[in-house]
Design brief:
alpha/beta, FAD/NAD(P)-binding domain, 5-stranded mixed beta sheet, 5-stranded parallel beta sheet, 22 strands, globular, binds 3-acetylpyridine adenine dinucleotide
Length: 537
């Protein structure tokens, strides 16, 4: 095995996070190289090519803010950008800032161990890289969760996880298609698959709330308006809870009459999208407010779905609205009015096995299929880091360090893992926010820290005390909301059998989090053990 190279920093991943990290470090004159498993840039938007894949954040702010020129020159075509358009955007960014020359593609990291001096990174192809600082930019939702259902290997048709969708596409025309999962992904894919499949069977375990996206082409006037307003838009994002440029309503919905409240909800419904949450103050803090909003959304399912039994099966009753990540959709509930779509309640009658012909339920009912789609989500936040095979001081594996659940300081580093920085790691706001906003904040913060360490010839890792305090704070922040009430949420790791139940993202809000990170840096990084560099013979 040969040592390929030895930059100051290795960045794993070339999606939104990795590309900007490489750019920032290069600007600072710090040598950096990226390792990317895919054969191109894009991360999430490289892999998630399933039918209907589209972003739930609006295009004018689901993008980088670091370059005024980039902001002005890129034209989005729709209110919500589709997968292909976001991938084109990231390819443009890679070219515009000449980033590809700093990335090795088709290079999967199999292990990364700190040898007491440097990180030693081994890749599937046998190439070895070493570096002083290792930055993970592997995303929060990149480790596919394929359920362990008996008989899957015997299935005679084709099956795919949405997060590993074939690049050549899957022709479902006239075929019998099954979809397992009704999270954000399933809810995006189901209407599109139904439009061309012969028959579509949806295997639903948990009914979900969903709000119409109201996607539409972006008019020239709208696009020009956003471009002119970017300074103000970015300021609202930076001061917000979720990194979205929405100002949360100050209306006390419980003080309104029933008619006034219904009118407020109707307006938010008509506007559509994730903005619905911002229209309902305290929706994630006050159970009474949440129940009003949940009731309204349930009534929309009843009035949309023609068959009352199907409508009832689609009606969520086991978790308050938005305690699981709320999907947004285009004609999701309407799809169940189609002749070729069948809803199967697998909570009432669980999937027992996959047979060569399709899916067999516990009751013995059979659903013959040609194509089976797993929209079953991801081993979120910790999963993408665990599969890197990270080993810290003394050879301790991250999997052992996290046996009781993922623990970090600020979501940015792990005690016992020197000079490792984790962009949007567990314990950061990440998935509760508009991702590019959180990513840029993390990248800027890490770049400043690496520059500081380099200037003073220091190594750094979080102190165990700071990490323990942060874990308490992450728990308190979640407990101050209704979020932990969704028992089956991936925020808690509940979707992966055997995964420790720890509320993974930081729910205290993006603006507050950013201030804490800034205070940490201004105070000279007191939550980190900073050690003078040892001379190595
Ligand atoms: O995954 P999910 P996702 N048998 O975990 C079901 C982001 N995203 O890919 O709820 C039967 O939310 C599972 O059921 P249950 C977004 O943050 C963003 O949809 O566990 N069913 C659930 O219905 C999102 O939240 C965009 O009972 C099984 C579904 O599969 C995150 O990605 C677009 C099962 C999984 O839902 C993940 O969304 C799409 C089993 N064995 C996604 N195992 C944007 O636009 C799981 N399920 C940015």
């Amino acid at each position: 095995m040969s040592v390929r190279n030895d930059p100051d920093v290795v960045v794993i991943g070339a999606g939104f996070a990795g590309l900007y990290m490489i750019h920032r470090l290069r600007e600072l004159g710090i040598s950096v190289h990226g390792l990317e498993a895919a054969d191109g840039v894009g991360g999430t938007w490289y892999w998630n090519r399933y039918p209907g894949a589209r972003c739930d954040s609006e295009s004018y702010y689901y993008c980088y803010a670091f370059s005024r020129e980039l902001e002005q020159e890129w034209d989005w075509s729709e209110r919500y950008p589709g997968q292909a358009e976001i991938l084109s955007y990231l390819e443009h960014v890679a070219d515009r800032f000449d980033l590809r020359r700093s990335v090795s593609f088709s290079t999967t990291v199999v292990s990364a161990a700190h040898d007491g001096d440097r990180w030693v990174i081994d890749t599937e192809g046998g190439a070895r890289w070493t570096c002083r600082w290792l930055v993970t930019a592997v995303g929060c939702l990149s480790s596919a969760n394929v359920p362990d259902i008996p008989g899957l290997e015997s299935f005679a048709g084709e099956w795919h996880h949405t997060g590993q969708w074939p690049h050549e596409g899957v022709d479902v025309t006239g075929r019998r298609v099954g979809v397992v999962g009704t999270g954000s992904t399933g809810i995006q894919a189901i209407p599109v698959l139904a439009a061309s499949a012969g028959e579509l069977t949806v295997f639903q375990r948990t009914a979900n709330f969903s709000i119409p996206a109201r996607n539409a082409p972006l008019s020239d006037d709208e696009a020009a308006g956003y471009k002119a307003d970017y300074a103000a838009i970015r300021a609202v994002q930076q001061a917000s809870t979720n990194g979205h440029p929405f100002v949360v309503s100050d209306v006390d919905t419980l003080a309104l009459s029933d008619d006034e409240r219904r009118e407020l909800f109707e307006r938010a419904w008509e506007r559509g999208g994730l903005r619905f949450r911002a229209a309902v103050r305290d929706v994630l803090a006050d159970p009474a407010v949440n129940e009003k909003a949940s009731d309204f959304l349930r009534s929309k399912i009843r009035s949309t779905v023609e068959d009352p039994d199907v409508a009832e099966t689609l009606t969520p009753r086991d978790h308050p609205f938005a305690t699981k990540r709320p999907p947004i959709d285009t004609d999701y509930f309407e799809t169940y009015n189609r002749e070729n779509v069948t809803l199967v309640d697998v909570r009432a009658d669980p999937i027992a096995e996959i047979t060569p012909d399709g899916v067999r339920l516990a009751s013995g009912a059979e659903h013959p299929l040609d194509v089976l789609v797993f929209a079953t989500g991801f081993d979120a936040l910790s999963g993408p880091l665990l599969r890197l095979g990270l080993r810290g001081t003394g050879g301790v594996a991250l999997a052992d360090a996290w046996a009781e659940g993922a623990a970090t300081y600020l979501g940015l580093g792990v005690a016992g893992f020197p000079n490792l920085f984790t962009i949007t790691g567990p314990g950061s706001p990440s998935v509760l926010t508009n991702m590019p906003t959180s990513i840029e904040q993390h990248v800027d913060w890490i770049a400043d820290l690496v520059a500081h360490l380099r200037a003073h010839d220091l190594d750094a890792e979080p102190t165990p005390e700071a990490q323990a305090r942060w874990a308490d704070h992450v728990r308190e922040a979640a407990d101050a909301t209704l979020l932990p009430q969704a028992a089956s949420s991936w925020y808690l790791g509940a979707n992966v059998p055997g995964k420790p139940r720890v509320f993974l993202p930081y729910a205290g809000g993006f603006a507050r989090y950013r201030e804490m990170c800034d205070a940490e840096a201004a105070a000279g990084y007191p939550g980190f053990a900073l050690r003078a560099r040892r001379e190595v013979a």
